[in-house]
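Handout, tutorial session.
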Amino acid sequence: MSGIFGEIQPAVRKESIRVGVITAVGVALMCAGFFGLHLIVPDIVPFDYTVILGGIAGGFIAVLNFFLMGLTVQKVAAAADEGSARNKMKASYTQRMLFQLLWVVVAIVAPCFQFAAGIIPLFIPSYGIKLLGIANR
């Protein structure tokens, strides 16, 4: 496979799928939590299409961020020069954080997203990977 992403290594593909599953489960649990809280305090916690849409979009952004990080690590591992590899990692990190920051602004400003439901999924991959690591010990 060639094009924008070039050749994706099997490890990057496998881990990205794993993170996608973790994130999908986390978003489903988050939506269930919103629904449960909505039943208890409906005036404070909403549950409508904006929660679901925010969760799906935020989850997509989180998985895309992880996938792009994997591609960067793949490219950096193949680089011969350590200095340019370090600069590529720093640039990738900065770009991915700016992309997530842009999403946070959109999630807060756009009325089609419930802001918390759009932001919470950004944390799901990190915590999911840590929980799986603890469970596998």
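The second record follows below. Compare its token runs with those of the first.
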Amino acid sequence: MKSVMIVDDSRIMRTVVRKTFDTLKVPCTYLEAGDGEEALRIAQAQKVDLILLDWNMPKLSGIEFLKKVRAMDQYKTTPIVMVTSESARLNVIEAIKEGATAYIIKPISEKVFLDKMSKIIF
């Protein structure tokens, strides 16, 4: 079974993302992290098939996590989707440049989420 890691410092937002992802009806297990450091520990301990990642978090931001995880051989091609309120064009460009597979701006529109996720194979 595939594993999906949801990384967001808001427990409520992790629940929203999980419930939105559930609408895809993809059998998977969920892992959750409340900050980038916790997410990095999880990623180092076990292989994750998809990462849904917020930008603004304590300890290690989403963009810092993205850079670190993309440097790891086992995550060079893993889909990583930024799900964040950071909507500035420069942030989107930086995230894509650093290896984000897709970028979804909060609040999450189910239609946009499903459209972006339908293009990702994991």
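Points raised in discussion: Helices lie at 11-22, 36-45, 62-70, 89-97, 110-118.
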